[in-house]
Amino acid sequence: MRIHALLLCAMLIVCACGKSSDDPPQKSEEFKVTVYPAEKVQKTKTQKVYVHLMPWFESKETSPDGKWGQHWTMANKNPDIINGSGQREIAAHFYPLTGPYASGDAAIIEYQLLLMKLSGIDGVFIDWPGTTVLYDYPLLVKNTEKLIAKLDKVGLTFAIVYEDQNINHAYDAKVISDKLAAAQQDMAYLSSNYFTKSSYIKLNNKPLLMVFGPQTFTTENEWTNVFNGLSTKPAFFTLWNASSKSGKNATGEFAWVTKPHLADLNNFYGNAYSGVKIASAYPGFKDFYTQGGWGNTLFTIDHNNISTFNATLDLALNSGLESIQLVTWNDYGEGTMLEPTKEFGYGFLTSLQSKLGVNYTQTELELVAKLYEMRKKYPGSAENQKKMDQVFYYLVSNKITEAKALLQEIK
């Protein structure tokens, strides 16, 4: 009996030694992300809806000189000044819900593209500066390419709106000596880097290329020469009433925002132009140029809360045209932004959801905002960031319930 007790005691000692209190705790199982392909958001309207986006915003962290980008500051504003409401001083009459941001920030890109998708938007028309090394143009190209890299995962398409006026700016600054060669270089870059992507918008198998103008090249012969090196010529769209400046090179025209605005829209939709037309809808127009020290105010179109947007969107939807461009996602300098702001909340996007027959509401848009908030709250937590990656894949695949549940778990 005594031997049995001694053996039992020895066994207990061995077991205790094998389970030291100094042993590290077992690690919890690492979270694994399941990738889901993007699915289309269901809507009742069949027209394609695109939104014009400016990739030109920079923060102190992303600017080469460590300063806020000029589109937040213009000539005289300082976002480092914060008012009693916690808002930074920016060169705009309206304030983004996120606060001022960098266009190349991965979290902002995710936020913007998810909001677009869940609002019923099909793709993005990206304002593109060209490849000349002047001002902030190279940064804009980098921001553009960061955004493009995310489009397939979200399930959105894109096309380029070419700022041919920048060729003149570069020439006047003596950065280039040959305008045509610079434009041909831009076209070669677009052809090699963008036009071949599956997410690039095509019209009759031709890449859609828009121009904000034209302003530098204004004859058919000039545009023929600009496109001369391309194996596939683009489906080329100019601003409304400007296709004559490119002659037979033009496939169509796109509407913009001017005053008197409703009259101009009705005239464009009803005129006898035989090319393809792209409609436009916008929330209003209230630029900051005078207050920001960037020249004179252009004109003003009252937003009337969201009534101006509703009126222009209704006109576009009833125009009979196949495509609509929303003007714009984020031009704060001209007050045409549709993304969520302190002043308008989600109003423009929820109205868009309703008029397009999208099943989603502000509730889903707020999930996107929550995801952005969490991205910024836990930048150094790899585990939480993986969970947020999973939330992203849930959202792009319309798994809203799963996205909401997982987002609530993140602490």
UniProtKB/TrEMBL annotation:
Endpoints of the signal sequence: 1-16
Localization per Swiss-Prot or TrEMBL: Golgi apparatus membrane
Membrane topology recorded in Swiss-Prot or TrEMBL: Single-pass type II membrane protein
First-listed, main subcellular location of the protein, grouped into a coarse class: Golgi
InterPro entries linked: Glyco_Hydrolase_99
Keyword Hydrolase: yes
Record keywords: Golgi apparatus, Hydrolase, Membrane, Signal, Signal-anchor, Transmembrane, Transmembrane helix
GO molecular function: alpha-mannosidase activity
Matches recorded under PANTHER family: ENDO-ALPHA-1,2-MANNOSIDASE, RE57134P
Name of protein: Glycoside hydrolase family 71/99-like protein
